[in-house]
Design goal:
Elements lengths: L5 E5 L10 E6 L12 E6 L2 E7 L14 H10 L4 E10 L9 E3 L2 E5 L24 H13 L5 E2 L2 E5 L7 H9 L4 E3 L5 H7 L3 E10 L12 H25 L28 H6 L1 H8 L3
Length: 292
């Protein structure tokens, strides 16, 4: 079996991961450009962990400016097998107030400015996104939350908008009416790229506000969000530390095939494939391309 390496992407309010031992910082050059920040690699209870700040220190990157391909490539190159996204979000449900944590199981992608695939002209691939979250990783997060006495809701749909502006009232009411649970700006195409890179992926959505549909919260402000971010960040760090301590040291196969997503995804005939694109895909798709 493959050694498990836990990856953590820290969203708004989470720019570092206390508790890492033997920490070293690594800048990763990628064929897709520069990642958001250097990787912070270390160990928690002997488990290899790689942390990436999605917005970088000081929150210098907006959701639309993040190089999602470079981020996922860097984590894959670092050997990450299981990836946890810690993400601030707004809520569409009264029962998910600010401070609530949600283990997402579905996504709706409403972004429109982002590169959403490693593949393209010269090598086409279609991976399944029917079940975008690894159920095993989601269960392990739920168990870690229970051990830390952190309340967490199992299941929910995350709609990802382009941003950086918050929703209009009409948009917010539409998403609420469609039954979505939370809204954010960063988990797409992140989840799609993780699937293409055959990394098991899960999101801990941390509610900071009620978006603008709620009559008592009809205008979301950065000040309101920041008030909740600090509390959420402290809980998230405890959750991740507990997860790492109890995480299997060998990677277990994903029940929905996240870690074998490319087995039947490549459609371009070998003789028609672009050699330059193949070189760029070494870390992402080397497992399957090496068989040809």
């Amino acid at each position: 079996m493959t050694q498990a390496v836990l990856g953590i992407i820290g969203g708004s309010g989470i720019y570092d991961l206390p508790g890492l031992e033997n920490v070293r910082e690594q800048r990763v050059d990628t064929p897709w450009g520069e990642p958001s920040a250097p990787l912070r690699k270390g160990e928690i209870a002997g488990l290899p962990v790689a942390f990436l700040s999605r917005h970088d220190q000081g929150h210098r990157l907006s959701p639309s400016d993040i190089n999602y391909r470079a981020n996922i490539y860097a984590l894959k190159r670092a050997g990450v097998t299981d990836l946890v996204s810690l993400s601030a979000c707004g809520s569409f449900k009264e029962e998910l107030p600010p401070g609530a944590f949600v283990l997402i199981d579905q996504f709706v992608d409403r972004t429109h400015k982002r590169e959403s695939s490693f593949f393209g002209k010269g090598l086409v691939a279609h991976v399944s996104m029917a079940h975008p979250v690894s159920p095993r990783l989601r269960l392990q997060l739920a168990e870690a939350a229970m051990a830390e006495d952190i309340g967490i809701v199992r299941g929910g749909t995350y709609v990802c908008i382009e941003g950086p502006q918050f929703s209009t009232l009409a948009e917010s009411l539409t998403y609420k009416g469609l039954g979505y649970s939370v809204i954010g700006m960063t988990n797409m195409p992140e989840a799609k790229l993780a699937r293409e890179a055959e990394i098991c992926y899960a999101t801990v959505a941390m509610v900071t506000d009620f978006d603008c549909w709620h009559p008592d919260h009809d205008a979301v402000t950065v000040a309101d969000v920041i008030k909740v971010l600090t509390v959420n960040a402290d809980k998230a760090k405890r959750l991740v530390t507990r997860l790492a301590r109890e995480f299997p040291r060998e990677h277990e196969p994903c029940p929905v095939g996240s870690d074998r997503a490319l087995d039947n995804a490549l459609i371009t005939a070998p003789e028609a494939r672009d050699p330059e694109l193949i070189k760029k895909l070494d870390a992402v798709a080397g497992r399957v391309l090496g068989k040809v």
